[in-house]
Amino acid sequence: MKQVKRIMENTLSLFNQIVKELLAEEAEHPVAARIPSDQLYEQLDLSLPEKPMHTAAYEKAVKALVMATPRTATKAFFNQLFGGRNEKAILGDLLAVILNNSMYTYKAAGPQVGVEKVILRKVCDIIGWDDKSGGTIAPGGSMTNFMAMLMARDAFDQNIPKEGLNRQLLVYTSKDSHYSIPKNAAFSGIGRENVRYIPVDQKGRMDCQALQQQIEKDKAAGLSPMMVNLTAGTTVMGAFDKIDEAIPICQAHNLWLHLDGAYCGSVLFSEQYKHLIKGVDKVDSFSFNAHKMIGTPLTCSLIVVKDQTHLYESFSSDASYLYQTDHDEFNLGKTSLQCGRRNDALKFWTLWKSVGTEGLEKIVDQQFELADTARNYIRDHEDYTLYSYNESVSICFNYKDIPAHVICTLLYEHSTLLVGYGHFEGQEFIRLVTINAQNENKDIIDFFHTLEKFVAQNEEIISDAALSE
After folding, report:
1. How many CB atoms lie within 10 A of CB 162?
2. Same domain as 270, residue 178
3. Whole-angstrom Cα distance, residue 35 to residue 41?
4. Structural domain of 59
């Protein structure tokens, strides 16, 4: 036992050493030097040996891998819909790893079940739902969207889980919604071709008049509409579908209404911005990713339902070898798609516990402030073209009419900035996301200065790249 304790202490010491070196390296070089994919196995020792490695060689290989990995928590990462590093949330994630509980039963997870239940109850309370509501935590927004689709399917026809599909069911979503929707339609047996993509307005929001017309057309053809998927923060434009306009349509046609807030549903915590999801209390299910706007480590995705009976009806299955003690409400496997499931609630709890609900609000508001700073900078400089709108944390723009994919790729290849590009209504543009609430306004201005300096110093390379298209 003493030897096991000593080995663990030595390993934790190595972890601390690597983290210390990483933080120092990030301060000097916020973007890791890029390793081309065709050189990956030459530059890094990723091989798996037959015999144990010597300690020194092992530590060298691990450190090299860590130092070469993209740095998603620095002030130069604006590429994906996550970023930053909150120390209290990291504490919870590290403790979850050490404790290594699985969240399917109270017997295996104990008070950690209470941690998850408290989070979900508080979220439901903030929405304004009563005690009939409930939820679960899943590994990612694609999974929560899948769970919503399964519950919608089963609510439409309770015989489907037993007998399978016997009719053509339809799902409605905006053409700018998340790519998981057609995948989930395939997984659930509904079929990709039974997803109806509804047009959007100039801000990227679903056209609810077109939604109404499509539903009526499909019903007249003898088909079976069952679900509408709305988005709170589309992946590219960061647009919020108009919940209030969709609610009466769904009620009139008895359709399940899901709000996919994976990206920006956390505006729920902000007094200033929660109007963007006005009507959320009337949807059937709602999901958001705490690993995006709230800044917990990947992954931490929540789905809540107005009536938690649907969770049990779609996901509960008896297993006497698992559920041997306590009440069903403390055996979370009864309401989860998964069986074995890591404790993703603890990192959100340690964050929320430390900053309070007011602190979560400040995290969300900070991201919108950074987005305003970015938009104002673009509007004040004539070399930029702005494509996005206010009240979005996706800032879409172009600089000097340089093709967006050219400049984003070169910035990446030269280890200067990590930022992506997107498309909307035939336009291609750079998409800057201000999802890292630990950034300050100065960091946003520095982003643009870095971009401008890079273009000025690499005009010939950029021109050649653009001409070679």
Report:
1. 6
2. yes
3. 10
4. 2-71
